């Protein structure tokens, strides 16, 4: 008889434990899933090259030569058109010029790109330079001719990525680092 009752008791205990754990988590969350707080909208971009920081406002970025890229956003399964400054042009304005003298440095350098929510990603510097890579990476200031909405005032967008995992909304900082 114990052999027949024991599996039923184990099952009842598991249901009771996992069911109560779920109810406890819902009660702690006020009966709902905890939503991640909205990130502060980005208003400017701090670009650091070789330890020298340069801050660009949205107005300054819009005044620079603009590039429009068309991408497919796999998160919402939509085609989107972004306009902004090519990241390579922005790096040049901040002091990093891509040429023969910086070729080796480019191969050993990366960019840390961060949003106001502290989400950050890495790009190799050769992914950014059009002399080295076919894809485009821009600091977008508009999407489909309008503002970026919940994505802030600035957003990093890459045409070379199949998924927008390394796109950074509410873009606030880009730091160029070289590994020696």
What percent of the residues sit in helical stretches (DSSP H or I)?
Answer: 25-40%
Beta fraction: 25-35%
Shape: globular
Q: Give the tally of β-strands.
A: 10
Secondary-structure element pattern, one letter each:
HEEHEEHHEEHEEEE
Short description:
27% of the residues lie in helices and 34% in strands. The protein has helices at 2-28, 58-63, 87-93, 103-107, 125-128, and strands at 44-49, 52-57, 67-73, 78-86, 109-115, 120-124, 137-143, 155-158, 168-169, 171-178.
Notes on the protein architecture:
This protein is α+β, with helices and mostly antiparallel strands and 180 residues long. It contains five helices and ten strands, in the order αββαββααββαββββ. The strands form two sheets. A five-stranded mixed beta sheet has the order 2-1-10-5-6. A five-stranded antiparallel beta sheet has the order 3-4-7-8-9. It is globular. It starts with a helix and ends with a strand.
């Amino acid at each position: 008889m114990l052999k027949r009752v024991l599996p039923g008791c184990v099952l009842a205990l598991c249901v009771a434990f996992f069911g109560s754990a779920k109810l406890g988590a819902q009660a702690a969350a006020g009966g709902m899933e905890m939503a991640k707080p909205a990130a502060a909208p980005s208003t400017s971009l701090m670009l650091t090259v070789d330890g020298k920081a340069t801050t660009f406002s949205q107005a300054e970025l819009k005044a620079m030569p603009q590039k429009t890229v068309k991408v497919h956003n796999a998160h919402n399964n939509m085609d989107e058109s972004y306009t902004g400054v090519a990241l390579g042009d922005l790096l040049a304005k901040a002091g990093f010029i891509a040429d023969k003298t910086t070729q080796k440095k480019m191969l050993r350098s990366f960019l840390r790109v961060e949003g106001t929510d502290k989400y950050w990603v890495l790009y190799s510097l050769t992914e950014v330079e059009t002399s080295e890579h076919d894809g485009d990476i821009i600091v977008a200031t508009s999407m489909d001719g309008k503002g970026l909405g919940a994505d802030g005032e600035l957003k990093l967008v890459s045409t070379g990525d199949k998924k927008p995992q390394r796109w950074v909304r509410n873009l606030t900082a880009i730091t160029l680092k070289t590994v020696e």
